[in-house]
Amino acid sequence: MLGMDHTDTAFHDHLQSALYRHGLTLLRHGVSVILEDGLWTSAERKEKFAGARDCGALIDLHIFEVPFDTLRARLGLRNREAATGAYPMTDEQLRWAWDLFQAPSTEELAAVDFCAVHPGGLDDVPSR
Fold it and tell me: Which residues contact residue 98 at a Cβ distance below 8 angstroms, ignoring those fewer than 6 apart?
């Protein structure tokens, strides 16, 4: 990986900003971009959707509705396996992230070109 500690929030913020700017450049050139970070709150989605629209991009939104207990079980398995580069997230951190997330509103859903809800996570993602 990049060799940075997962707790280095300054590096994370800098990297996320640089990748987002790069993503906008790609969109302006007609390349599809997947954002999987920074879409947890309505304000973040509003900002990212506006940036995409300014670049002339279509917006596909995929929502993964996975129950908290399922996430906790998956996290426990990931932590036990201790794969290289995997962030050892605690139950408290998972709860914080769970509480931070704001489900998209009806207005947000109406603002995208395509929306799919995946109730089990990655197992049911359709090809497009």
Answer: 68, 71
